[in-house]
Amino acid sequence: QVRLAESGGGLVQAGGSLRLSCEASTPPNDNDIIMAWFRQAPGKEREFVAAIPNIGITKYYGDSMKDRFTISKDFVKPKKINLDMSSLQPEDTAVYYCAETSYANRKDFRRGPAYDYWGQGTQVTVSS
Asked: To the nearest whole percent, how much of the chain has pLDDT over 90?
């Protein structure tokens, strides 16, 4: 059972920045994975934010995030990813979830049901 632990959420003013991190307990020899971020605002459906395969350098973003958010792999810990968010706006307020799936599910990586493991989420609140 893989466990995902998110950190870095909090309260920030509009226009500010935050970094979220997610560390997975995935075994070191399991590299065929995709890690991703989703978010869910109150009363709204879960939304794809960004994804990054453990192998390769390609990164994927939701349509409204690609210019403001950056997903990256941690240089020190192989199963840790970061999400750097800038120019945050009140509409970015949500619970942000880290998720992991097998690379075999890559065709559906923008959809939540494709993911096998989820973190508990971290709250991001952007004040106006």
From this structure: 82
Q: What is the DSSP string of 50-80?
A: EEEESSSS--EE-TTTTTTEEEEE-SS-TTE
Instruction: Return the exposure string of 58-84: e unless at least 16 CB atoms fall within 10 Å of the residue's CB, then b.
Output: eebbbeebeeebbbebeeeeebbbbbe
Q: What is the spatial distance between Cα 16 and Cα 107, in angstroms, rounded to a whole number?
A: 33
List pLDDT tens digits, range 43-81. 999 999 999 998 888 999 998 888 999 999 988 888 999
Hey, which residues does 70 pair with through a beta bridge?
A: 84
Helix (H, G, I), strand (E, B) or coil at 126: strand
Residue 31 pLDDT > 90: no
d(CA 25, CA 84): 21
The predicted structure's pLDDT at residue 29: 84
d(CA 68, CA 55): 23
